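PROTEIN DESIGN WORKSHEET
SECTION A - STRUCTURE
LENGTH: 550
TOKENS:
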């Protein structure tokens, strides 16, 4: 066993004495040494219950014949970090999570890992670590939050971000907003819609790195989650014995499955960043053109919040990921032979069925014949941009407008709340990319306020959007402004043309004019000059390559 390097032989007597100091027995030291990476904290509602999940994993590891040892991982709540300087940190924290797991796993000689995350950057950070380390590993997430209820309808955290716009527009009272605040998030779990956390939990299942139900069984169904956690703990011991490693599972076919399902369910645009980053760690090429190729042949068959009114609990009731994958397999976009932590995809979906046709449509009756995420290009995004097409209203799919340019999210929000933005504008927020932010902040606040105020405008950024964002919001524009990308050359009043069905994002500026502006452009001083973010800004790659550190 790999853990023999810390447990076996005369030169490891001191090591064993340290284990004995913690109460481990000599018999336990003969068993596979399994690390439980627990992202529990008291800041994120998706993580507040993870101690219970980790404890169930320990029972499973013990029952399966392993020796369990728990250690922590950090986690930032994107919702609480939203709209201020704290939002510079969530994406960079993904790299910290991956690096810290690498350090712990190598430093202590673990034979295998059970990864216990639940939210936006924590899930991909842990998957990146698993791919990098390539020791047996399984993801056991905490599960989605139930939707809240207000005046007879389901609501979630995205409703509350949009409520700010409704309030500013005088459409709801302060009392109504207060009542909604107290109803939107009823308990533990990752926020209830098909936002980034739930999309990535679904992706971990589709990639084959988690058990069926990992992405959709609600956190509130603690009995089902506890059973799953026990099974995950026992299974990782079997994986160690059979030498089943992440790179056996995280193949090109697995990523193609994930992209297809992502398109089929209208997942968060952030998955483009995360899947490419995980693939990078697994040694798999995943160009953005592949997302577009798969989108073109994958029907969009579920319409969940923020694009629709259903939530993850409805998707679970409808049959979950297995039902989605089985339905999409009818279009030949699912590789059934791809491996999972237990068997193949084909064996996993064999008995799956759609149990609510209102939630999961058939491939013959999709919401759209193309996937939920679109990759755009043009003179404004030579290295592409990303939009969640499934959350764009039909009358905004093709849009011409006038640029209103802001060099920070804060400046844009001030203009929006100050009612300086009008229908027909294209709000441009730049210098918020991986290097420029630094950290590539999510732009849920401005998009939600725009939605709440009922404005018919588009929003472009070299930053990114929350999975809870809806509307004509185009992010990941590459190259970013800080690298001299065309978005950094725009001026107020420039014409912008957006054609999502034809994948076009263009500034109505001549090549000659662009060349003159580029010659005059000077890179601004970094917004952050010390600490982790300054180091991150120097090392991070462009959004179109996953914003990884090289």
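SECTION B - SEQUENCE
RESIDUE ASSIGNMENT:
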């Amino acid at each position: 066993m790999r853990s023999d390097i810390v447990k076996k032989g005369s030169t490891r007597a001191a090591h064993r004495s340290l284990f004995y100091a913690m109460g481990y027995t000599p018999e336990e030291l003969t068993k596979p040494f399994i690390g439980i990476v627990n992202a529990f904290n008291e800041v994120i509602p998706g993580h507040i219950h993870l101690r219970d999940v980790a404890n169930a994993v320990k029972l499973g590891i013990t029952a399966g014949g392993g020796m369990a040892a728990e250690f922590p991982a950090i986690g930032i709540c994107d919702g609480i970090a939203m709209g201020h300087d704290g939002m510079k940190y969530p994406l960079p924290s993904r790299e910290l999570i991956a690096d810290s797991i690498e350090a712990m796993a190598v430093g202590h000689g673990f034979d295998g890992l059970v990864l216990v995350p639940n939210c936006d950057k924590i899930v991909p950070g842990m998957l990146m670590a698993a791919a990098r380390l390539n020791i047996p590993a399984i993801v056991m997430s905490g599960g989605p939050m139930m939707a809240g209820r207000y005046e007879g309808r389901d609501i979630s955290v995205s409703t509350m971000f949009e409520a700010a716009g409704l309030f500013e527009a005088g459409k709801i009272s302060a009392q109504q907003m207060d009542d909604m605040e107290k109803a939107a998030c009823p308990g533990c779990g990752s926020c209830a819609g098909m936002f980034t956390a739930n999309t990535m939990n679904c992706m971990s299942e589709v990639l084959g790195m988690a058990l069926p139900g990992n992405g959709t069984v609600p956190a509130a169904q603690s009995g089902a989650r506890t059973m799953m956690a026990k099974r995950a703990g026992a299974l990782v011991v079997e994986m160690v014995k059979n030498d089943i490693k992440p790179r056996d599972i995280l193949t090109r076919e697995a990523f193609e499955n994930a992209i297809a399902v992502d398109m089929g369910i209208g997942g968060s645009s952030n998955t483009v960043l995360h899947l490419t980053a995980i693939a990078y760690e697994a040694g798999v090429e995943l160009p953005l053109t592949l997302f577009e190729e798969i989108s073109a042949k994958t029907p969009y068959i579920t319409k969940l919040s923020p694009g629709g009114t259903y939530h993850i609990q409805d998707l679970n009731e409808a049959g979950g990921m297995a039902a989605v994958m089985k339905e999409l397999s009818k279009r030949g976009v699912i590789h059934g032979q791809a491996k999972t932590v237990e068997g193949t995809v084909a064996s996993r979906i064999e008995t799956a069925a759609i149990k609510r046709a209102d939630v999961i449509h058939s491939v013959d009756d999709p919401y759209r014949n193309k996937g939920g995420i679109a990759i755009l290009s043009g003179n404004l995004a030579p290295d592409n941009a990303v939009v969640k097409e499934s959350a764009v209203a039909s009358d905004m799919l093709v849009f011409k407008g006038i640029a209103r340019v802001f060099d920070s999210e804060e400046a844009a929000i001030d203009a929006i709340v100050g009612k300086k933005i009008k229908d027909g504008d294209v709000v441009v927020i730049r210098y918020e990319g991986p290097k420029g932010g630094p950290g590539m902040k999510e732009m849920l606040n401005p998009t939600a306020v725009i939605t709440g105020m009922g404005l018919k405008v588009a929003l472009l950024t070299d930053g990114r959007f929350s999975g809870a964002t809806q509307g004509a919001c185009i992010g990941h524009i590459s190259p970013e402004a800080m690298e001299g990308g065309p978005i950094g050359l725009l001026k107020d009043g420039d014409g912008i043309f957006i054609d999502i069905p034809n994948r076009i994002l263009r500034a109505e500026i001549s090549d000659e004019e662009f060349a003159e502006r580029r010659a005059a452009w000077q890179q601004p001083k970094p917004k952050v000059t010390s600490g982790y973010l300054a180091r991150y800004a120097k090392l991070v790659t462009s959004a179109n390559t996953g914003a990884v550190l090289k």
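SECTION C - NOTES
The chain has 21 helices and 14 strands.
The chain has a mean pLDDT of 96.
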